[in-house]
Write a structure and sequence with these properties.
Blueprint: E1 4-10, E2 14-21, E3 24-32, H1 38-52, E4 57-64, E5 67-69, E6 74-77, E7 86-88, H2 90-98, E8 102-106, H3 107-117, E9 126-132, E10 136-142, E11 145-146, H4 177-181, H5 183-194, H6 200-208, H7 212-236, E12 240-244, H8 251-264, E13 275-277, H9 284-293
Parallel strand pairs: 1-4, 4-8, 9-12, 12-13
Antiparallel strand pairs: 1-2, 2-3, 5-6, 6-7, 9-10, 10-11
Length: about 300
């Protein structure tokens, strides 16, 4: 990456942007994600990019959760953004406003690309990346390139069915991996069991303190996550699986899942598949978005 590029990571609560030089993001700036509508979200992205723009910043890359067609530059839908954020030609809108070439990509795919190219999966041929947070994202990088599939949405393992007609998912379907193993789903289950509302990290603290309900919820989430990990091993046979997102900092959740996944794969040839934490932490999305901008 001879020049600096601007990477943008669009989340449900905040939008982060930074100037990326190689494997480092500098001048990282965040603003709250607007809740009012698509026009306001686009305007906020443009505002951040213009704040960071300079003569050495040549391109813009944007990572965003949801159904993204990177080739067409369109966000079909994003569960974390306002309801009218559908079929948005985001790449064209931002490029026109900032007068810079702009590319967009699913945020989990950005994460996987960053870790495969420069991070924990560097030097590996097939890298699978899970983002574990309020939702569950997934991306596959093969031979340095993101696997997109026909419609651009290949690898949505968070939205694969693990329980037929099960709990509601953010996508509108039911019984998905995200419905059971995400931070949002585990805190929801804890509330059903106890009547108490906590966030993911308070849930972790209570589980570490041996509270029975918290330990039960985390153990169940880990068991379901193990299914997702095993499915990734079986489907893609990756050289490594890299975990990111807030829940990758909760070892009592993901380490039991990793151990259990190794017991669920059908053939011993799938083992050992290393399952490791991301190198770049919260900046992986920005770095991956900048890498996307350079393609």
């Amino acid at each position: 990456m001879p020049n600096s590029h601007i990477g943008v990571d669009v989340g449900g609560t905040k939008i982060a942007a930074g100037i990326v030089r190689g494997s480092h993001a500098v001048r990282v700036t965040t603003i709250p994600t607007p809740k009012t509508g698509r026009r306001e979200v686009v305007a906020a992205i443009v505002q951040l990019v213009k704040t960071l723009d300079g003569p050495r910043s040549t391109r813009v890359g944007i990572g965003i959760a949801g159904a993204v067609n990177a080739a067409k530059g369109i966000v079909y839908s994003s569960p974390n953004l306002p309801p009218d954020f559908k079929n948005v030609p985001l790449a064209r809108l931002v490029a026109r406003a900032v007068r810079r070439p702009t590319r967009i990509e699913n945020d989990a795919k950005c994460f996987a690309l960053a870790e495969a190219t420069l991070g924990a999966g560097r030097g590996k041929r097939i890298v699978a990346g899970f983002t574990l947070g309020s939702g569950i994202g997934f991306g596959i990088v093969m031979d340095g390139k993101i696997l997109h599939g026909r419609g651009g949405i290949a690898g949505e393992l968070g939205h694969t069915t693990v329980v037929e007609d099960g709990l509601p998912c953010s996508c509108g379907q039911r019984g998905h991996l995200e419905s059971y193993a995400s931070g949002r789903s585990m805190t929801r289950l804890y509330r059903r069991l106890t009547g108490k509302t906590v966030n993911s990290f308070e849930l972790e603290r209570r589980a570490k303190d041996h509270e029975a309900a918290a330990r039960r919820v985390v153990a169940y989430g880990a068991e379901i996550l193990a299914i997702g990990l095993a499915n990734a091993m079986t489907t893609f046979n990756p050289d490594i699986i890299v975990l990111g997102g807030g829940l990758s900092r909760v070892p009592i959740y993901w380490r039991p899942a990793a151990r259990r996944a190794s017991q669920l794969v059908p053939y011993r040839q799938f083992l050992p598949t290393p399952i490791v934490k991301a190198k770049f932490g919260s900046q992986a999305g920005l770095i991956g978005a900048a890498l996307v901008a350079n393609t």
